[in-house]
Amino acid sequence: MAEKKTSPIVKDVKSELVFTKKNYQLLLISIAIVAVGFILMMGTTGDIYDSRRTLLAPLVVLAGFAFGIYAILKK
Fold first, then answer.
1. N or C: which end of the chain has fewer CB atoms below 10 A?
2. What are the residue boundaries of the structural domains of the chain, listed by start?
3. Which sequence ranges are marked TM in the entry (predicted)?
């Protein structure tokens, strides 16, 4: 019986990250924007129906989430 010569399979495996450094920076910025939105939502005054709590803070949070989606999809 003839023996088969098996050559070692050499694969050029590079440990590439899914995201670049810029993507991670943008994700951290988006997390900070969302955190600012939640801090605005907490508020310091006792008025529950303050325009900052009901209008500004949710818009800031949504902007932070939208920026996070942009940071993920950016190539």
1. N
2. 21-73
3. 24-43, 55-73
